[in-house]
């Protein structure tokens, strides 16, 4: 069965979705929707497919089975809800939405029987593709098996570079209304997601969120240092910035009683009484940026595999809410950032209760 795919929003990350779809025998791109005429023209030339300006017109004209949402964060909700009402499955880029109320409405719609085809529950997936990285899956397995004893904690770093033009070229990225935040929600949320997925649910968020390098350019944050307390009682620390001189590999260290894991460009597992183990990562695709990770294609293929059976996708809106709540807790703990940007978080955030 060849599934018909519609891409809504033709920007940077849509190229990765298009590359994945054109490599899959069970998928075909039938159209692209974008409000920008120049991007529509680019899609027609690059993909050889028809385009539409409005989501409604695209859904009616192209009759897709799956809608890929690659729009700015603040535009996710209306596109997703319209696609669900049309009976389509939806695969959206992270985050689920720019704010928690909007994200909850999406999650509620995804739980509602009757919106999907033939009255079945709609399938909605969220692109946290780094969960498909070979290193992340190996770390998750080591933690679950407990071969090296109890987990003592973790440290992760995201040191990337975003120049002023990254924001001025697409102003929504630097605003609360368009993006819902900055570094944490747009870049580091993937690492936040991995920390809570590997280490367990987060019950407390503390730290610092601020605009240290681009305060004259953006109203959102470019730097953060967070301490996450997990349900088990252990802590993980995230240090992230968009003010690094280059886009460096994301790192994660997990410390156990009798061993340690360090991921970067590859994963090194060391433990008492066992030889060191190295897990090589997949090479990034031609259209993706190396520091994005290498597993968009794996996630998209997995999502499509479950279509005919109507299987619930494992990274669904309820699952995607976990990392969004952590990010919003960091902002809220800073006292309604940006008014108190840079101040220490001083209380457990109610989002996590």
The amount of beta strand, in percent, is 15-25%
Major sheet: size, sense and barrel closure? Answer: 8 strands, mixed
Distance between the termini: 44 Å
Number of helices in the DSSP assignment = 12
SSE order, one letter for each helix or strand: EHEHEHEHEHEHEHHHHEEEEEEEHH
Order of neighbouring strands in the sheet with most strands: 8-9-10-7-11-12-13-14
* Overall average residue pLDDT: 90
- The value of Rg in angstroms is 20 Å
Strands, count: 14
In helices, the fraction of residues equals 25-40%
Shape call: globular
From the helix content, strand content and strand pairing, which structural class follows?
Answer: alpha/beta
Uncertain runs are 335-353
Structural overview:
The structure is a single chain. With 353 residues, the chain is α/β, with parallel strands linked by helices. It contains twelve helices and 14 strands. It has an eight-stranded mixed β-sheet, covered by helices on one side. Strands 3-2-1-4-5-6 form a six-stranded parallel β-sheet, with helices on both faces. Helix 1 (14-22) packs across helix 11 (296-305), helix 6 packs parallel to helix 10 and helix 10 crosses helix 12. 45% of the residues are buried. Mean pLDDT is 90; it is low at 335-353.
């Amino acid at each position: 069965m060849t599934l018909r795919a519609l891409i809504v929003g033709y920007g940077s990350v849509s190229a990765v979705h298009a590359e994945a779809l054109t490599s899959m025998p069970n998928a075909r791109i039938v159209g692209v929707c974008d409000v920008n005429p120049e991007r529509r023209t680019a899609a027609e030339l690059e993909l050889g497919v028809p385009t539409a300006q409005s989501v409604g017109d695209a859904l009616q004209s192209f009759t897709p089975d799956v809608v890929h949402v690659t729009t700015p964060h603040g535009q996710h909700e209306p596109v997703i809800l319209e696609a669900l009402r049309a009976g389509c499955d939806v695969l959206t880029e992270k985050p689920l939405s720019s704010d928690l109320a909007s994200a909850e409405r999406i999650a509620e719609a995804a739980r509602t029987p009757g919106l999907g085809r033939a009255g079945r529950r709609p399938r909605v997936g969220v692109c946290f593709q780094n969960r498909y990285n070979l290193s992340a899956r190996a770390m998750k397995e080591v933690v679950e098996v407990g071969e090296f004893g109890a987990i003592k904690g973790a440290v992760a770093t995201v040191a990337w570079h975003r120049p002023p033009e990254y924001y001025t070229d697409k102003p929504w990225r630097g605003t609360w209304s368009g993006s819902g935040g900055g570094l944490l929600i747009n870049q580091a949320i993937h690492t936040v997601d991995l920390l809570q997925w590997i280490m367990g649910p987060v019950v407390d968020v503390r730290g610092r969120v601020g605009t240290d390098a681009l305060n004259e350019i953006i109203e959102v944050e470019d730097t953060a240092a967070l301490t996450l307390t997990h349900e088990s009682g252990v802590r993980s620390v995230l240090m992230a910035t968009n003010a690094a001189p280059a886009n460096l590999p994301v790192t994660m260290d997990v410390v156990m009683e009798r061993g340690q894991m360090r991921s970067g460009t590859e994963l090194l597992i060391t433990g008492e009484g066992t030889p060191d183990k190295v897990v090589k990562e997949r090479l990034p695709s031609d259209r993706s940026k190396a520091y994005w990770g290498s597993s968009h294609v794996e996630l998209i293929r997995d999502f499509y595999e479950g279509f005919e059976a109507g299987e619930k996708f494992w990274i669904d809106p309820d699952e995607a809410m976990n990392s969004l709540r952590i990010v919003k807790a960091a902002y809220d703990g800073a006292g309604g950032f940006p008014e108190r940007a840079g101040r220490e978080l001083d209380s457990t955030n109610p989002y996590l209760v």
